[in-house]
Write a structure and sequence with these properties.
The complex is a heterodimer of chains A (361) and B (489).
Chain A lengths: L1 H6 L4 H31 L4 H15 L3 H18 L1 H10 L1 H23 L3 H30 L18 H28 L3 H32 L1 H8 L3 H19 L3 H23 L2 E3 L3 E2 H4 L3 H17 L1 H12 L13 H8 L5
Helix pairs in contact in A: 2-3, 2-4, 2-7, 2-8, 2-12, 2-14, 4-5, 6-7, 7-8, 8-9, 8-12, 9-10, 9-11, 10-12, 11-12
Chain B lengths: L1 H10 L17 H39 L3 H35 L1 H34 L6 H6 L1 H23 L6 H7 L7 H5 L4 H29 L5 H35 L1 H8 L5 E2 L3 E8 L2 E8 L2 H7 L5 E2 L13 H32 L7 H27 L4 E3 L3 E2 H4 L6 H32 L29
Antiparallel strand pairs in B: 1-4, 2-3, 5-6
Helix pairs in contact in B: 1-7, 2-3, 2-6, 2-9, 2-16, 3-4, 3-10, 3-16, 4-6, 6-9, 9-10, 9-14, 10-11, 10-13, 11-13, 13-14
The complex binds CIS-heme D hydroxychlorin gamma-spirolactone and protoporphyrin IX containing FE (HEM) (2 copies).
The site of one protoporphyrin IX containing FE has 20 residues of chain B, from helix 2, helix 6 and helix 14.
Chain lengths: 361, 489
């Protein structure tokens, strides 16, 4: 294995970047769907009208959002450990949107947890709006940060104007696309969950929303090509070369998902929708390879100590062994509805609790 | 890089006085950045104590409930789980903010040493991942999982908390006792070579700090839980549920308290050995002397020790088992490199006084239980002491951290990098500090309001407001059942 790394293009830093990118992809898919759910929560309407949709959203993301959120930590930590100088440059340059994202994350996680237990409808509404707004703001800022990197605006010393580095066409495109993709993905997932749990009305309304968002996101992506050509030429160039196959796969995945949605089979739209997101994020990575910060520093140059990179690989393998099986278990439990509402099974803790106090009705 | 020159001269043991033109705290952001970091950490640490130790308490209650068909115990587990959902969520987001802040506020540290200390964060992340996964399953598994499996999901949560604490603490320990790279080479050239991330992780402070922090999480959580139920009992809700909740909290804290003190002694010995300047601040040793007295109370005002009671040769004897041992005093480094001595001193003494007080309380409770078979739960003074014990243990923990962190000043990594060289160049940190104080105050109040509303609802046997609640209306308990007040303390 060491020989392979020594031999040439597939260097040790490249391996770590690949791992890092797995984290980015996972966060985009899982975290993205959670953020998007907040978007739909926001648009669900009055408490009475939106009750069903909001319950659906709570039940769908409640058990999983904290785990999904850890992917972000994973990405941050791998970035600063493997590429310390690039990390320091990035955070210093994109200080403002990072703070925006941090505040968004705090408000969102806290408000989501608090809403479930609030004492009154007024409180619940307040937390609900906070949750929803921060769910929209956060991916926007992440997209904007990605835009700053992709358009080559992060210098190695991080010393840029705090605003002009991200108030740019590419960053705005990144932000809007991030919000749109999250919303689309969440629409698909929520439609599928509703469909599975026998809520045809809800399934239909989320399907409609996903269809509309899908069209909008598609249109923005087309406009995006023009923006990247002028504002982020290095990335645009890469996307036309090594990134191209992924962009195509992403497009096909998106179309397939839309087709299943139209057919009224949201359950089947999930996989192609996820593929679409995975492919576009991988395509972005391929497009900007070998830069870690576009036009500033390449992956191999930015990499930290080899002993630490090996440590990160060991940590990744370790994570794969100890954390992925439970993760899959959890996603499956949640997928078959064991973690949502429904009837309590007779041997559950809840049934036991009630059996112990039979007069308790 | 003026401070680098300073560092290298230090390592050669030449005491220098700093040139006037380059004060250590050149960057005016520094003070705000430090307060920002301290405030976010001080907030996170309380919630993370619950993250680490609460699963164990819930496990005890849940297991009792299943094993002995104990309705009250099972009910406790269910309520604690609901409270935990809120506390853990806020713990997770406040921890995420910390990760951001490591980079945002201290790019000099992370940019230079990211590959030295980062691996610990990565490993920590794995355990947070496990914790979050099983937490999701436990919190939402009340109806859909077989009870035994459901109970078992608490075990990996509790175990992950222990490992997570270990790995994050290695980072802090590294800041106190840097290791895992060629320190001398760095001090001379500012270049980090010969990196060994594992050696960085297992540095000289790791074990003592971990062994001292871990029981602290149990101590704090146990006493806070006991506090809450003590308030309830004092307010007349004296039923079996309250007594059981109090007893479980107390039992956990009682196990942790003596360990806390023994490992505190271990920590102090380690500091004396490896971080002499911090120790000098903790013990008010102004000058390097032989036969250091043990000092009770006291502060340093205008360079004079005031209000202290001294036991001759005490500290030398305690630390080195030799009444005439020599210890470094604050004066062994230039003033610019001394920590703010009184802050460290007060914090350290506060921790010890509270620690001793908590131990006394534990001994009292344990003694009565040994003689009479039950805690003195009808003794109002015992209950009142317990009410105070929760917040007091939090205070002790915050004081302990203040000792550790302020005692290291002005270094972010002792003898290796100054805080001033690590801080960001971005302006406006003061604004962020104000923003965060507002945000966290709001968050803390919101959580308290919600937890209170939750417990009031339990008392009335009501359900969450329907339009937003995820669960169908559920009946938790008989109407008349008086309920624990979760946050009255
Ligand atoms: C729950 C609270 C609590 C209690 C009752 C005590 N401690 Fe503590 N102490 C902590 C909670 C704590 C802490 C917050 O957890 C610290 C901060 C850093 C660490 O690892 O543990 C700490 C740090 C800390 C340090 C500094 C370690 C370092 O900087 O490397 C020393 C020397 C002691 N403690 C010593 C003691 C002694 C002698 C105690 C005897 C009564 C004591 N502590 C009780
Ligand atoms: C393991 C975890 C921790 C890490 C990695 C860590 C890291 C840091 C860093 C990077 C700083 C800023 C630089 C400095 O002032 O030295 C700092 C300062 C500080 N931290 Fe910690 N810390 C940890 C735990 C805590 C906790 C739990 C508290 C609880 C209150 C705390 C209290 C403080 C204080 C008070 C300061 C400011 C010191 C001063 O300005 O005088 N730390 N810490
Ligand atoms: C002694 C100090 C610390 C302890 C014992 C501790 C412990 C914990 C625990 C138990 C959690 C799980 C959340 C919960 O259940 O409440 C948590 C969350 C977290 N902590 Fe800390 N922490 C400490 C300091 C820090 C520091 C210094 C950082 C970062 C620089 C940090 C970063 C995080 C992150 C990112 C999370 C979120 C993980 C998630 O998304 O679930 N922690 N911490």
């Amino acid at each position: 294995m060491t020989a392979l790394f020594a031999a040439g293009t597939f260097t040790l830093p490249n391996a770590v970047v690949a791992i890092l990118w797995i984290g980015v992809v996972a966060y985009a898919v899982f975290g993205g769907a959670d953020f998007g759910s907040g978007f739909w929560d926001f648009l669900a309407g009055t408490p009475e009208k939106g009750a069903a949709a909001r319950k659906r959203i709570d039940a769908s993301i409640g058990p999983v959002w904290e785990a999904n959120h850890v992917w972000l930590i994973f990405v941050l930590v791998y970035l600063w450990t493997a590429f310390p100088t690039a990390f320091a440059a990035l955070v210093t340059a994109t200080f403002v949107p990072l703070i925006g994202a941090a505040v968004g994350i705090i408000l969102r996680g806290a408000a989501f947890a608090l809403r479930k237990s609030s004492g009154s409808l007024r409180q619940a509404r307040f937390f609900g709006i906070t949750f929803a707004l921060s769910s929209v703001v956060t991916p926007f800022f992440f997209g904007a940060i990605a835009g700053a990197v992709a358009s080559g605006r992060v210098p190695l010393d991080g010393q840029t104007d705090a605003w002009s580095v991200w108030l740019t066409p590419t960053s705005m495109l990144g932000g809007v696309l991030a919000v749109g993709v999250c919303a689309w993905l969440a629409g698909v997932f929520l439609a599928a969950d509703a469909h599975r749990d026998g809520q045809p009305e809800l399934a239909k309304s989320f399907t409609t929303r996903a269809l509309v968002t899908g069209v909008v996101v598609g249109a923005i992506s087309l406009v995006g090509i023009v923006i990247l050509e002028t504002d982020a030429p290095t990335l645009a160039d890469g996307l036309e070369r090594s990134g191209a196959p992924f962009v195509i796969v992403s497009g096909l995945g998106g179309l397939a998902a839309m087709w299943f949605l139209r057919q009224g089979e949201p359950g089947r739209a999930r996989v192609p929708a996820a593929i679409a997101v995975v492919a576009i994020v991988v395509g972005w990575g391929a497009g900007q390879y070998p830069w870690i910060l576009v036009d500033t520093i390449e992956i191999d140059e930015a990499a930290g100590a080899r002993s630490t990179l090996w440590g990160l690989i060991i940590a990744f393998v370790f994570a794969g062994t100890v954390a992925v099986p439970p993760l899959i278990w959890m996603l499956r439990l949640s997928g078959v509805g064991s973690l949502s509402v429904g009837e309590a099974r007779p041997d559950s803790s809840y049934a036991k609790l009630k059996a112990l106090a039979p007069d308790d009705t | 890089m003026s401070s680098l020159a300073l560092v290298s001269s230090l390592s050669l043991d030449i005491s220098v006085s700093l040139p006037d033109s380059t004060p250590v705290f050149a960057n005016e952001n520094l003070i705000y950045a430090r307060w920002l970091m301290a405030f976010s950490l001080g907030f996170h640490i309380v919630l993370s104590c619950f993250g680490v130790a609460f699963p164990a308490l819930i496990y005890l209650a849940h297991r009792r409930g299943l094993k002995h068909d104990d309705h009250d115990a099972l009910m406790l587990a269910r309520r604690w789980a609901k409270a935990a959902a809120v506390l853990f969520a806020i713990g997770a987001v406040s921890g995420t903010l910390l990760s951001f802040e490591m980079g945002l506020l201290w790019p000099g540290l992370m940019g230079t040493f990211g590959d030295v200390i980062g691996l610990a964060f990565a490993l920590e992340g794995i355990f947070f991942f496990l914790e979050a996964i099983f937490l999701g399953v436990y919190l939402y598994g009340w109806r859909g999982l077989p009870a035994k499996l459901h109970l078992l999901t608490l075990v990996p949560i509790a175990v992950s908390g222990v490992f997570g604490t270990f790995f994050i603490l290695t980072v802090n320990a590294w800041m106190n006792s840097p290791a895992g790279f060629d320190i001398e080479h760095f001090q001379q050239t500012g270049e980090v070579i010969d990196i060994d991330p594992w050696a960085a992780m297992f540095n000289q402070s790791t074990l003592p700090q971990f062994l001292h922090m871990l029981p602290a999480t149990y101590l704090v959580t146990g006493f806070l839980v006991a506090s809450v139920y003590a308030v309830g009992i004092l307010r007349g809700r004296d039923d079996r549920l309250h007594r059981l909740g109090l007893t479980i909290g107390f039992a956990v804290a009682a196990v942790a308290a003596p360990i806390q003190i023994v490992t505190g002694d271990l920590a102090a010995r380690n500091v004396a050995e490896n971080q002499p300047i911090k120790f000098a601040a903790m013990e008010l040793i102004e000058e390097t002397t032989t036969g250091v007295p043990f000092t009770i109370g006291g502060l340093i005002i205008d360079g004079e020790k005031v209000g202290a009671i001294e036991i001759p040769n005490g500290t030398s004897l305690l630390q080195d088992f030799d009444p005439n041992s020599t210890m470094e005093g604050l004066d062994s480094v230039p003033e610019e490199l001394q920590p703010p001595v009184n802050v460290v001193r007060i914090a350290f003494q506060l921790m010890i006084v509270i620690g001793m007080g908590l131990l006394t309380l534990v001994v009292w409770g344990a003694f009565v239980r040994w003689r009479k078979g039950d805690l003195p739960l009808s003794n109002k003074w015992f209950l009142r002491a317990l009410v105070v014990a929760g917040p007091a243990s939090v205070l002790a923990m915050e004081a302990g951290w203040t000792t550790t962190e302020v005692g290291r000043q002005p270094w972010i990594a002792r003898d290796v990098m100054l805080v001033a060289d690590a801080v960001t160049t971005r302006e406006g940190i003061a604004g962020l500090l104000i923003g965060l104080i507002v945000l966290y105050s709001g968050l803390a109040s919101a959580s308290i309001i919600v937890l209170k509303a939750m417990s009031a609802r339990w008392r009335r046997g009501e359900d969450p407001p329907a339009p937003y609640g995820p669960m169908p209306l559920e009946i938790d308990e008989p109407e008349a059942d008086p309920e624990p007040d979760l946050v009255d303390a």
